[in-house]
Structure formats: structure tokens, C-alpha cells
From TrEMBL, chain A:
Protein function: Key component of the proton channel; it plays a direct role in the translocation of protons across the membrane.
Name this polypeptide is given: ATP synthase subunit a
Species, as recorded: Roseovarius pacificus
Superkingdom of this protein's organism: Bacteria
InterPro entries named in the record: ATP_synth_F0_asu (IPR000568), ATP_synth_F0_asu_AS (IPR023011), ATP_synth_F0_asu_bact/mt (IPR045083), F0_ATP_A_sf (IPR035908)
Automatic annotation (TrEMBL), chain B:
Coiled-coil residues: 70-105
Organismal lineage: Bacteria, Pseudomonadati, Pseudomonadota, Alphaproteobacteria, Rhodobacterales
UniProt source species: Roseovarius pacificus
Pfam family, one: ATP-synt_B
A single GO cellular-component term on record: plasma membrane
Single GO MF annotation: proton-transporting ATPase activity, rotational mechanism
Quaternary structure and partners: F-type ATPases have 2 components, F(1) - the catalytic core - and F(0) - the membrane proton channel. F(1) has five subunits: alpha(3), beta(3), gamma(1), delta(1), epsilon(1). F(0) has three main subunits: a(1), b(2) and c(10-14). The alpha and beta chains form an alternating ring which encloses part of the gamma chain. F(1) is attached to F(0) by a central stalk formed by the gamma and epsilon chains, while a peripheral stalk is formed by the delta and b chains.
Family the entry assigns: Belongs to the ATPase B chain family.
Segments crossing the lipid bilayer: 30-49
Described function: F(1)F(0) ATP synthase produces ATP from ADP in the presence of a proton or sodium gradient. F-type ATPases consist of two structural domains, F(1) containing the extramembraneous catalytic core and F(0) containing the membrane proton channel, linked together by a central stalk and a peripheral stalk. During catalysis, ATP synthesis in the catalytic domain of F(1) is coupled via a rotary mechanism of the central stalk subunits to proton translocation. Component of the F(0) channel, it forms part of the peripheral stalk, linking F(1) to F(0). The b'-subunit is a diverged and duplicated form of b found in plants and photosynthetic bacteria.
Compartments (UniProt record): Cell membrane; Endomembrane system
Family annotation (HAMAP family): ATP_synth_b_bprime (MF_01398)
InterPro entries assigned to the protein according to its UniProt record, in alphabetical order: ATP_synth_b/b'su_bac/chlpt, ATP_synthase_B_chain
Official protein name in the record: ATP synthase subunit b
């Protein structure tokens, strides 16, 4: 809608952020809490994709796996090993939780790469909730497992005594900054890539406006879109991986707070 | 119509900024995110993850079993080979015994036959010698008789009267000679 409002000026249309607008799927009403929006649609699609891979793909329970089951097992083994290696053997109880986070982020990221898709993980509201869930879980687990001993995480006993209060202050700040960086890293990466692609996409129809300049700009933008898209595929996986492994690292702090 | 223009204006207002910071959509996003996460969590923890874990465990079990079975079969094969080698050696030894026995039997038979033949030959020899002696005796006698007769005839031809006893004695003396 906004696109039409601006495009009648002629020339190139730059609305790289319009793809992130949350809008109702049916009708044009205001976005209430329970409105079915494009957020609902793309989250539902990621749920369906996860069910297709992890439930339908493994329904054969074959000892010699097929292609889909192999991928499901690969994802399982990848995250299970990560939890075990990074957070420790006693963190295996958190494996379904971490698997949920990983599967949701990885599928939201990849589905967001489809043309005309809405990327749910490019919104701070979503990533902040994911990061806060991790932050609250880790903090609660830390206090439940170790009581006040969890505060030893901030008291660097290997440092010289006069330095310790300073370090404790820094540690406390860094602890509370964690959910911020955790969420903004994911959201920023997803948003930036998609916005850059959209900017290049806006340059692509240059040939329609001016043949001379268009001969140079249009092929360059198309190549750039392809290149950025390749990079975004990498980023989609890496950001899911980074989010998950950081969750494991934070969980390790909660389970083994000693430095 | 009114709502549409309002919405367009709204979107236009937020377009230069970030839709991410439009707080009016936060409740909606957070609500649907929680629904999504809960659904994924239950699907994974109730169905998918236990199933995959079971499949992986079963595969590990199958592999372990197969390896054990292979080890078993290998031991069995070694045992069979040993048994075969032993049977072969036994058969060889038995064959050697049978050959030796047969050789000994043949030798004994041969010795027997040789001895019998020797005895027969010896008996025949004795008999032949006896016969030859007889023949010789007969021949001697004939020669003596012929000599006596001849001598008598010669003596008679010479005009003498041959005394039989004298002639015999002379012939005998000559024959001995």
C-alpha cells in the first residue's frame, strides 16, 4: 500500500524496509494481539516445515535412513553434540529446548529467504523474546542449582583481590548485556541482508529508465543480488548456529559457574 | 475506505523508520512466537526427538550386533579350517598306514611264493638228479653190455674163445680206468 503511495513519482522506488511491515493477512484492520498476520503465516510455515522434516521425515524409523530422515538425524546429532560438548553432559536435559530454538531460527531464516517471504527473525520483538527466554532460563537454572553460589560467576577468584570488585562490575554488566547482543545480533543480521538485497533489487530496473546507465547498473545489481543471496544463505545458517551455541555457552555458565 | 487511508498513512509514516520499532505489532508477534515455540517444543520433545533417539540407538545396536556376529562367524570359520586341516592330516596318516600295511602284506605273499617256488625247484632238482643218475647208470650198464658183447665178438672174430668172466673183468677194469 505504501509502495503505491510513493511510486507515482516515477524513477526508482526505494522501500527496503517495507518487507518487514507486519500486516494482517485478511483485510486491513489494525494489528491486534491475536490478529492473524503475516507473522502468523510464516511462523506457521516454519512449524509445518519442522514437522515435515522431523516427524514425517522420520516416520519410517528406518535403520538405513532415507534422504529426509538423514537430514533430521543430522540436525539431531549436530545440536545434541553441541549441547553435550559446550554445555556439558548434565545439560542434555535442556536439549529439546535448545533444539526448539535452533529449529525455529534456522527454518525462519531460510523461509525468510524465499522471494516475497516475511522474515520473522528480522524483528527485534521476536529475537528479544528468544534471547530473554534464554536469559531467564539460564538465570533461574543458575540460582536453582547453586543458590547464592551462582553469584560466584561474577567474582573472578583467579584475579588479584583488589581487581575483583572492578571485574565483578564488568561481569555483571556483561551478563545483562548478553540478551541484548544475543537478540540484536540475530535480528540485525537478518534485517541487514534482506534490506541490502531490496536496495539492489530497486536498482535493477534502471535499464527501463535510462538505457546508458542501465546497461551498467542493471547487470551489476542482478549479480549483486545473487551474491548477497548466497551470502544470506550462509548467514541464515550461521546466525542460527551462533544463537544456539551462545545459548549452550550461557547454559554452561549456569550449570558450572566457577571460572 | 477510511481505514485504508489511515493504514496507508500509518505505513507511510513508519516507512522511513524501521517497522521493527513499531511497538503496536509487538504484542501480536510475541503472542504468535510463543504459540509457535510451544508447538515446536511439544512436537519435538514428544514425537520427533524420542523417535530419532530410538532410531539412532537401534542403529547402534544393530551395528554392534552385526560386528559381534561377524566376529563369531570369523571364529567359526577359523575353527572349521582347523578341523579341515586336522581331518586332512588324519586322512593322510591313515593312507600312509594302509599303504605300509599293503606293502607288508604283498612282501609277505611274495616271500611265501618265493619260498614255495624255491622248495619246488629244489625238489624237482633232486628228482632230476636222481633221474639223471638212473639214466647215467642205465647208460653205463648199456655201455658195459655193449662193450662186453663187442669184446666177445671181437675175441670170437680173432678166433679165440672168449671167457665171459675174463671179458667182463677186463671191461670193468677199462671202464673204471
Amino acid at each position: 500500500m505504501a509502495t503505491e503511495a510513493h511510486s507515482d513519482e516515477g524513477g526508482l522506488v526505494f522501500h527496503p524496509m517495507d518487507q518487514f511491515i507486519v500486516k494482517p493477512l485478511f483485510g486491513d484492520g489494525p494489528v491486534g494481539m491475536f490478529t492473524i498476520t503475516n507473522v502468523t503465516l510464516w511462523m506457521a510455515l516454519s512449524v509445518i516445515a519442522i514437522i515435515a522434516l522431523m516427524v514425517m521425515g522420520t516416520s519410517g524409523r528406518s535403520t538405513i535412513p532415507g534422504r529426509v530422515q538423514s537430514i533430521g538425524e543430522l540436525a539431531y546429532g549436530f545440536i545434541y553434540k553441541m549441547v553435550e560438548d559446550v554445555a556439558g553432559k548434565d545439560a542434555v536435559g535442556f536439549f529439546p529446548y535448545i533444539m526448539t530454538l535452533f529449529m525455529f531460527i534456522v527454518f525462519a531464516n531460510f523461509l525468510g529467504l524465499l522471494p516475497a517471504a516475511f522474515t520473522t527473525t528480522s524483528h527485534i520483538a521476536v529475537t528479544a523474546v528468544l534471547a530473554l527466554l534464554v536469559f531467564v532460563t539460564v538465570t533461574v537454572v543458575g540460582f536453582v542449582k547453586h543458590g547464592m553460589g551462582f553469584l560466584g560467576l561474577f567474582w573472578v577468584s583467579s584475579a588479584p583481590l583488589p581487581l575483583r570488585p572492578v571485574l565483578a562490575l564488568i561481569e555483571v554488566i556483561s551478563y545483562f548485556v548478553r540478551p541484548v547482543s544475543h537478540s540484536i545480533r540475530l535480528m540485525g543480521n537478518m534485517m541487514a541482508g534482506h534490506a541490502v538485497m531490496k536496495v539492489f533489487a530497486a536498482f535493477a530496473p534502471m535499464i527501463l529508465l535510462s538505457t546508458g546507465l542501465g546497461l551498467l547498473v542493471t547487470p551489476l545489481s542482478v549479480i549483486a543480488i545473487a551474491a548477497i543471496y548466497g551470502l544470506e544463505i550462509l548467514v541464515a545458517f550461521i546466525q542460527a548456529y551462533v544463537f544456539t551455541i551462545l545459548t549452550c555457552v550461557y547454559l554452561k555458565d549456569a550449570l558450572h559457574p566457577a571460572h | 475506505m477510511a481505514s485504508e487511508t489511515h493504514n496507508a498513512a500509518d505505513a507511510a509514516a513508519s516507512a522511513p523508520g524501521m517497522p521493527q520499532l513499531d511497538f503496536s505489532t509487538f504484542g501480536n508477534q510475541i503472542f504468535w512466537l510463543m504459540v509457535t515455540l510451544v508447538v515446536i517444543y511439544f512436537v519435538l520433545s514428544r514425537i520427533a526427538l524420542p523417535r530419532i533417539a530410538a532410531v539412532l540407538a537401534e542403529r547402534q545396536g544393530t551395528i554392534t550386533n552385526d560386528l559381534a556376529a561377524a566376529e563369531d562367524l570369523k571364529v567359526k570359520a577359523t575353527e572349521a579350517e582347523e578341523a579341515y586341516n586336522k581331518a586332512l592330516a588324519d586322512a593322510r596318516a591313515e593312507a600312509q598306514t594302509i599303504i605300509a600295511q599293503a606293502k607288508a602284506e604283498i612282501q609277505a605273499d611274495l616271500d611265501d611264493a618265493t619260498a614255495k617256488a624255491d622248495a619246488e625247484i629244489a625238489a624237482k632238482l633232486v628228482e632230476s638228479e636222481k633221474k639223471i643218475a638212473e639214466i647215467r647208470e642205465g647208460a653205463m650198464q648199456s655201455v658195459k653190455d655193449v662193450a662186453k658183447d663187442t669184446a666177445k665178438e671181437i675175441v670170437a672174430a680173432m678166433g679165440g674163445k672168449a671167457d665171459a668172466r675174463t671179458v667182463t673183468a677186463a671191461v670193468n677194469a677199462r671202464m673204471k680206468g
